[in-house]
Design brief:
Helix 5 packs across helix 6 and helix 6 runs antiparallel to helix 7. It contains 14 helices and four strands. A two-stranded antiparallel sheet has the order 1-2.
């Protein structure tokens, strides 16, 4: 890093404090005027280095999954990812087979939200709590949960006023579906997701990614998916892999799928297995990813979660 202004050559000293280019960190300027004047010469290098830095952040190992606040076991986004099935192999991804045969289970949320305390608890703990006879209570704070959706919105609003990102995100979902006396309003939903995203909600970034993708704005969709993926949202990572694959960027697609699969995303693992069959993935790579995938799945399993899945698949009950 140079110690003088890239435009006028003024050196940094006790009287002059140079500021780095925030996009690339390669050069410094003494003021905004010098930065504007130097931009035509710096533009190409800056954009190239900024893209390199973003890729470094995008493809590094994501943070660990969030643990359930009760059982302290990592929580995936969907309950089915916790199913206790034989390990995935080069010829089979059992959880994918189960998911394709049980669409309702495949979409079952693992992290139900409670408006009383603003917490999300894993379905396994919720299931166990209900089995113990506490079906009308919150598993975390023990508050009454058998209330109207209107009351839930009121509770949520209090947390929204305190800038709680999870509650803001959930309120956006309520607007999307028109729940709790709220008029169905996709734009209102987007506004709340945008606000929640500013407060760090990767679920909100994922929701915005889907919103823009469905609206045909792939650039914005990709931006939000990338932010969500960098903070550990496996489905956002998987969607990026699919998008890159559709764009013909096979190497980038496989990178995203490997990261998602290593975190236990069964669709990513299923797609990688298909890519191996097609000759796009080496045996060494697929075996390493399989090991990471199976380890992640094992970390997310528990007797309570298995029992919840069993109840849904065998008795068609809701957990």
């Amino acid at each position: 890093m140079q110690s003088c202004c890239a435009e006028c050559g003024k050196e940094e000293d006790g009287n002059v404090s140079l500021k780095r280019c925030k996009s690339c960190n390669l050069v410094k300027y003494c003021d905004a005027a010098c930065q504007r004047n130097h931009w035509p010469k710096h533009k190409k290098t800056c954009k190239q280095r900024a893209a390199e830095l973003r890729d470094e952040a995008l493809f590094k190992d994501p943070p660990a999954k969030e643990d359930c606040l009760i059982c302290f076991i990592p929580m995936p986004i969907k309950l089915i990812c916790c199913a206790s099935l034989p390990p995935a192999t080069i010829s089979s991804v059992p959880i994918a087979d189960l998911a394709f045969a049980n669409e309702e289970l495949a979409e079952k949320d693992m992290q139900p939200y409670y408006s009383c305390c603003g917490k999300s608890i894993c379905q396994g703990c919720v299931h166990s709590f209900y089995k113990s006879g506490n079906i009308d209570k919150c598993p975390f704070c023990n508050a009454e949960v058998n209330i109207s959706t209107g009351r839930k919105v009121e509770e949520m609003m209090k947390r929204v006023a305190a800038n709680d990102p999870t509650s803001i995100f959930m309120l956006g979902n309520y607007y999307l579906d028109g729940i709790g006396g709220l008029h169905q309003d996709a734009e209102k939903a987007k506004e709340h997701w945008t606000q929640a995203a500013k407060f760090g909600s990767n679920k909100a970034h994922f929701a915005l990614g889907r919103f823009y993708e469905e609206g045909g704005d792939i650039t914005k969709a990709k931006f939000h998916y990338e932010v969500a993926a960098m903070t550990g949202h496996d489905s956002a990572r998987y969607n990026l892999g699919v998008m890159e694959g559709h764009s013909g960027n096979i190497e980038r697609a496989l990178k995203h799928l490997r990261i998602a699969a290593s975190a236990g995303h069964y669709k990513a693992m299923h797609n990688l297995r298909k890519s191996f069959e097609g000759g796009f993935v080496s045996r060494e790579s697929i075996e390493a990813t399989l090991t990471a995938y199976n380890n992640s799945c094992a970390e997310m399993r528990s007797e309570a979660r298995d029992d919840c899945i069993h109840v849904i698949t065998v008795f068609n009950w809701s957990c």
